[in-house]
Every structure is written in C-alpha cells, then in structure tokens.
C-alpha cells in the first residue's frame, strides 16, 4: 500500500488533537491550570516562531502549542534510520517510513517588575508548576491518546523521544517533546514505469 500524501500531516494533526484534549482534561484535575491554548494551536512548517506566549485571543497566559516535522526517513529496523544505499532500479522499499515530530508548548514566563526587580519566588513557582503539568500532559497525551489514535488493533508504532524545558527567552518558557512514529504504508507509487 503506498504512503498517503497526507500521512505526515494527518499524523501531526492527530498528535495536536491528543495534546489539546489531554491538557483540557488536566484543567479539571489541577487548580489554576490554563489547559490547551485557545487560539495559538496549530501544525506549523518548520521550527515554530515564538510568536506569542500569551493567548492572542484573550491576552491571558493560555500560550502557544505547535507540532512540526523534524525529519522523515526510511527504516528497516524501526526506529533506526537506514544508512545503506537504496537500489536504483524499481522501488526498493524500506520496511517503515518514519516521521519525527516535535511538540512545542510555550507559556508566559515571569519577568522583571517595571522597577527592574526580578520576579518573585511565588511567580517563579507558579510558572514552574504550570511547566511541570505541561510536561506530564505532553507525556500522557502521547502514551495514552496518541498511541491509540492510529487505527489498527495495536495502535501506533512509536518511540517517545526526549522531552526538555526550553527558555525562558523573550518572556516565554515551555516544553519541547519529540516523538518518532512509523507511518502506515510505503513511500512508492503502486506502479513503477520502467523507461
């Protein structure tokens, strides 16, 4: 079966939907947690621009959630990347077509006061608390929701990659989570026409 032209984008959309659903569920389980950003949540081309940590719709600390493609490659032994030359005739298919996606969740970071004083420990702790809930939310979204969203009875074949805090930079701080996913189908057309 050939790889669908929308395989990467649909997978990224599924990941975004799972993260949002999980973060919104966490609103009910953690007081004063902002949940999924209401306005700035999207699949983006390339690395995300840190456009807005505050919610552009409300001006509140909703944040920005993005999913982007890091790389696409063939694999005979998932998730290892094939490094051997491919055949030049016909369509020598790897066993898996693999995509690495990056989820980035940004929130407002406390900054200095108008008088130039650093943020208070209470402000820093509140931002750290949100960051920690976000970290658990991304992990939970991938291991619970996204893992089951790929169809088939066994769900998606994936590897949960590195998660790390990013920032603070420009009054933004956040979490970046990588996930490597085996896509359904192969990368070649159904028919190969020889010259």
Number of strands: 5
The rough form would be described as elongated
Roughly what is the average pLDDT, rounded to an integer?
86
Structural class: alpha+beta
Radius of gyration: 20 Å
Q: What strand line-up does the widest sheet have?
A: 1-2-3-5-4
Strand content: 25-35%
Tally of structural domains: 1
CATH topology term: Alpha-Beta Plaits
- CATH class value: Alpha Beta
> What is the name of the CATH architecture?
2-Layer Sandwich
* Distance, first to last CA: 23 Å
Could you outline the blueprint of secondary structure elements for this entry?
Elements lengths: L6 H21 L12 E4 L20 E12 L20 E13 L12 H28 L9 E12 L2 E12 L12
Parallel strand pairs: 1-2
Antiparallel strand pairs: 2-3, 3-5, 4-5
Helix pairs in contact: 1-2
3D architecture notes:
This protein is of the alpha+beta class and 195 residues long. It is built from two helices and five strands; from the N terminus they run αβββαββ. It has a single domain, classed as Alpha-Beta Plaits. Strands 1-2-3-5-4 form a five-stranded mixed sheet, with helices on one face. Strand 4 and strand 5 form a beta hairpin. Helix 1 crosses helix 2. The protein is elongated and about 65 Å long. The two termini are 23 Å apart. The C terminus is likely disordered.
């Amino acid at each position: 079966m050939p790889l669908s032209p929308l395989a990467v984008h649909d997978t990224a959309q599924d990941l975004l939907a799972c993260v949002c659903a999980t973060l919104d569920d966490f609103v009910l389980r953690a007081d004063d947690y902002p949940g999924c950003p209401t306005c700035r949540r999207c699949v983006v081309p390339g690395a995300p621009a840190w456009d807005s940590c505050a919610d552009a719709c409300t001006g509140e600390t909703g944040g920005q959630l993005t999913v982007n493609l890091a790389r696409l490659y063939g694999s005979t032994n998932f998730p290892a990347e094939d490094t051997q030359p491919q055949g030049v005739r016909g369509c020598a298919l790897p066993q898996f077509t693999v995509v690495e996606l990056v989820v980035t969740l940004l929130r407002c970071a406390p900054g200095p006061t108008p008088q130039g004083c650093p943020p208070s420990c209470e402000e820093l702790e509140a931002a750290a608390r949100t960051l920690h809930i976000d970290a658990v939310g991304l992990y939970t979204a991938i291991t619970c929701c996204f893992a089951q969203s790929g169809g088939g009875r066994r769900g998606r074949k994936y590897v949960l990659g590195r998660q790390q805090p990013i920032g603070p930079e420009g009054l933004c701080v956040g979490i970046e989570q990588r996930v490597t996913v085996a896509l359904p189908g192969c990368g070649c057309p159904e028919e190969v026409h020889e010259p």
